[in-house]
Target: DUF4139 domain-containing protein
Amino acid sequence: MVSEQPEAVSLTVYRGEKYGGQPIDPNWPTGYALVTETRTLTIPAGESVIRFEGVAEGMFPESAIVTGLPNGVKEKNRDARLLSPLGLVDAYLKRQVTITRTERATGKTREFPAMITSAPGGAVILQTGDGYEALHCTGLPERMTFAEIPSNLSAKPTLSVITQSDRTVTVKVTLTYMAAGFDWEANYIAQVQDRAVDGKGKVDLFAWLTLANGGNQNFINANTMAIAGKPNREESNPQVKPTGGGLELKCWPNQRTHEVPYNFGYIPAPPPSPAPAPVAYMDEESDNIVVTAQRVRGEAMASFSPVAVVVAEQENLGDLKLYRIPEPVTVNAKGQKQVAMLVKPGAAFTHHYAASVQDYAMESQPMTLMLRGKNTTEKGLGLPMPQGQMMVFENSKYGPLLTGETSLKDRAVGEDVEIAVGTSVDVRMSVTPKSEKAYNQRWEIKITNARITPVNIEVEIPYELRNKSAAITKIDGVPTWKTTVAASDSATLSYTIKLERD
Model:
């Protein structure tokens, strides 16, 4: 018997590794998911095989648990060979097919047998009575016909189980399993409001919860959750990704070798689409464009953050954090779903320019503008902030403009939140060696401020220092020079590094 699709499904997505703050891999996401499906089955008396069609493409079959059967499960099998052009060709390797060709001049068709000898990279090599040739490379319209559909090919990823029942019975069965090919991340939008002369200001923070499904199965009206943190998970053997897909039929041109362009047959990938503006999104259920509300001040937009209608609810799961989408959503195959995750307007942040002497030399270089806040309720935050990509906007007479892109690491409640906005040509720093003795090196830092307002400065000096200046304090254990440089002015600091003895 066949169960074609679940009546209800729950999807819990766990993050994959993001090395260097990389975004989700759109081809095959590196995270995984816990999938729970509910299906109603009528099981006949005796032994029967139940085929659960439409399971996730990256299912870990050893993790599958089926509950609700009268006498449990006797045997499980994962059917990973999918019915598709590539799957059919793979199943018919070294087997006979029928080729039908049409003469262009007369319209007559001719059929003859051929054997598929290989299918490299989605191409098809045939052996006929005339020798070896590639499919669709004769210049004539042709098609390939298979005698039958192999019994071991399934139209959908399928889990089959063998069970036993004493009588015919209708039961509600729950299928739970782990599956690869999923991921999620947070995507932040930081809208910087007007800052004061002392560097204090407000930032409107908004975050999308972005879910990715890399398989070919839709999860319709799924109760969806995301887990932040890193559960202890033992490495398992790589899962066999289901076979399937289309054919890639290419032919060598009817020319001499030197006449063929070097890049023949190579179609460069299209440039990536620009990131969609957060003020509009395409409704997946229709072709309508939904534009979110904005707060307007004069002719310029006061905020670039969307107005959230549905926000994921954060809960604790042991030491992990769980984000529950409060209503069922559809996570489409090969697609992504975004739901509001964090909405925190007016969070308190300070502005300062930062640098490390290790990264600078005698020639002056721009310093990095930083935003620093405290993840507390008093400062306007007070929520766990999972790692993710961040876009920073500032107000201008033309509306909010992008001023920087960065990545944010996981930040727990109570921790500092630091955002690198970008470098400024107006605030520059140089580091110059002054003298060297047996066990000391003396250096000088010079900072110039070409802005019409004073700027706050923090410069890390990650060395063991001699005769440390009172202007140097320790931040997170690193000696740091903190000062304010007046408008159109400069500041200098001398420091001495203690050298190790041989």
Observations:
- Confidence is low (pLDDT under 50) at residues 262-302.
- The longest strand covers residues 169-192.
- The radius of gyration is 31 Å.
- Helices lie at 85-91.
